[in-house]
Design goal:
The complex is a heterodimer.
Chain A lengths: L2 E12 L2 E11 L2 E6 L6 H8 L7 E6 L2 E2 L4 H5 L2 E4 L11 H9 L7 H11 L12 H13 L5 E5 L7 H14 L6 E6 L2 H7 L2 E6 L2 E7 H7 L1 E5 L12 E7 L2 E6 L2 H7 L4 E4 L2 H13 L6 E4 L6
Parallel strand pairs in A: 3-8, 3-9, 6-7, 7-8, 12-15
Antiparallel strand pairs in A: 1-2, 1-4, 4-5, 9-10, 11-13, 11-14, 12-13
Chain B lengths: L1 H38 L1 H9 L5 H18 L9 H10 L1 H7 L4 H33 L5 H28 L5 H21 L3 H14 L4 H25 L5
Helix pairs in contact in B: 1-2, 1-3, 1-6, 2-3, 3-9, 6-7, 6-10, 7-8, 7-10
The chains are: A alpha/beta, B mainly alpha.
Amino acid sequence: MSNVIEVEGLCKRYDGFAIENLNLSIPQGGIMGFIGANGAGKTTTIYSILNIIPVDAGRIRIFGKDYKKDEQEIKQDIGVVFDEMGYHEIMTPLQISRMMKFIYHNWSETEFAKYLDRFGLPYKKQCGTFSRGMRMKLQIAVALSHEAKLLLMDEPTSGLDPVVRNEMLDIFQEFVEEEDHTILLSSHIIEDLERIADEIAFIDKGRILLADNKDVILEQHAILKGKKQDISKIRSEDMVGVKRSAYGVEILVHDASACRRRYPEFLCEPASLEDIMLYYVSRESKGTTGASEMTVENKGA
Amino acid sequence: MVGLIQKDMCVLRRQLLTLLEVAIGVTVLGVLFFLSAKYGNIAKELASMESEPNGEAMFFVAYRMTIWMILLIPMTFLTTIQECFKADIQAGFSVVAGSMPISKRTLVCARYVGSMLLSLFCLGVSLLAGGMVAVTTDAFAFSEIARWCLCAFAGLVIYNMIIFPLLYWFRGKRMDLIMLFPLLTVGMYIIIKGGQLDDAELTEALIYLGEHAADYTWILLGIMVVCVGISCGISVWLEERRGLGK
């Protein structure tokens, strides 16, 4: 499977924040979930890929082409959805369509109208009057109306109610039904990505902590639950992080099947993407390569 | 580029409609001023100037300049292109534009082309209003009005061309300050220079300006063309050199 996006050694430094030597490959077909807390570097990475901000170092290739040299050509095949609409509030969807006709070679007014109808968006109403959900739908309609092969989406579902979110996730899945269609979906709502993503990349403080197939990540990681005194039996290289509570310990391990065999005295439970992210982020924030320590105070019960 | 110009025109649509209303207004005002200056109260007021030294010439200048000023009001609308910068910032359009298959050069040039189209439209409105006044009154010939309009057109375009790179440099922030900067600079110069002249010299200068300013039309237009080229080049360079920042 070829890669649609290849990012190598990306560096971008701001005052108080830096992306250092970020490597990321997005395979063609399917959805890659880009997970990270607020300020982790998701938006900066997407902006760098789109050459919206200049990078300090690194090599980025999209569809096998240089992102700067072939920028215009590449962008003809990219649809983008940001967390804020970005179109002038005074403009109507119809005017946006007229504008896009001159910008994208493959712009289809019929397709755009089809999406507006499907999303229940008015043609001639100023988009300043639209709700957040409607604004996101308008962006998606634009992104899908010029035969894009790659969708880059930065927090498209944040701030939306569950009904609209669900509707949008369905649209994303529909988009990737085409073999050569790919989505990079950044979000901190892990629930959404757990549902639709095929690949996952965790980012924290400008560094990719983990990037792999979602099922592989979920299969490899597990949470071991046991008594506090048994923790010494677990090898430190097996542990990603430890959470201590009044009732015992929970340990995230990165080789679930081996650990299941190795530590039968522990209860082995599947880890969710959220668990995995929290343990990894906690480990990184302590600046260690070994296991992190989290303490949970259980009150009541 | 056409799409981007269309977008700017959407933003300016309200201003353009106001401009048409203003055009009708100034035409009526121009004719009314002419009638009053010829037969009404303004005529009496201006006639009293004739007894003063240089009075006749001053009468001529004041009378004509007032009508010119009225006719040039629509021209001031060409500075409203700056509303597009404001609207882009408010909408966060720069990010969307960055994701589109448009080069930064096209993005900047579209704004300049849009600005020139708006300027030509304003010039057209002023000429139309001037033409109406010329036809309905015997105040002056249309060619004279046209040269004055062209002078004002060139001056205001030069003003825009000074401001545009500053707006790109400051990314549309401190817009009011930037817009005031050239006006204050020229204003201060006039005040300082004017302060050094006595009344007679000042009157001479005004008369000379009234009679000969239009003679510099073609020079001003030439300077304008050079300014457009330089300003556009600087703005493109600024945009290509800098990204969005954070």
